[in-house]
Amino acid sequence: MEVKPPLPPFTLETAKAEVQAAEDAWNTRNPEKVSLAYTKDSTWRNRSEFFSGRDQIREFLTRKWNTELDYRLRKELWSFTGNRISVKFEYEYHTDSGQWYRAYGNEQWEFAPNGLMQRREASINDVPIQEADRKFRWER
Asked: How far apart are CA 116 and CA 7, in angstroms?
C-alpha cells in the first residue's frame, strides 16, 4: 500500500507541512510527480471540470501547464480537521500570446488514511494583470 506522510488526522504542524508540500510539488509543473500525491481513484472538481483517477489528473495537469506558461503558485492553509484541509491560493501564469493572469482560489482536500489525497475540489477565478504587476517571480 502506498503511504505518503503526513497522515491524517492532521495537526496544525502537519496540515501546514501538507500545504507546503503541495505548493512545492505543483511549482515543479511535473504532472507525473504531482499525480503521485493522489489516490489511484482520486476524484476532482477543478473549476467546471470533473474527473477521476491518476491518468485523468496527469492529462489535466499536462494540458494546464502547456497553456499556463511560467506558472508560479502560493498556497496558504485556511483550516483543517481530521482528514480534511482547506487551502486558499493564488498563482500567476501567462498565455502563449503573452497575457499575464493571477488566479485566486480555494481548495478543499480530503485524504485517505495512507496520506494520499482522495478528493480535491477547486474554485478558481482568473484576473488579467500586466507583467509589471506580477507578485511571484523566481530565478530560472
From this structure: 8
Question: For residue 123, what is its C-alpha cell?
Answer: 474554485
Contact 82, 74 (CB under 8 A): no
CA distance 114 to 10: 12
Is there a contact between 65 and 71 (Cβ–Cβ < 8 Å)?
A: yes
What would the pLDDT profile of 83-140 be if each residue is shown by its tens digit?
999 999 999 999 999 999 999 999 999 999 999 999 999 999 999 999 999 998 765 4
End-to-end CA distance of the chain: 37
Taking residue 59's Cβ as centre, other Cβ atoms within 10 Å add up to 14
Q: What pTM did the predictor assign?
A: 0.94
Per DSSP, the three-state class of 78 is strand
DSSP assignment letter at 133 = G
Ordered domains of the chain (ranges, CATH): 12-133 (3.10.450.50)
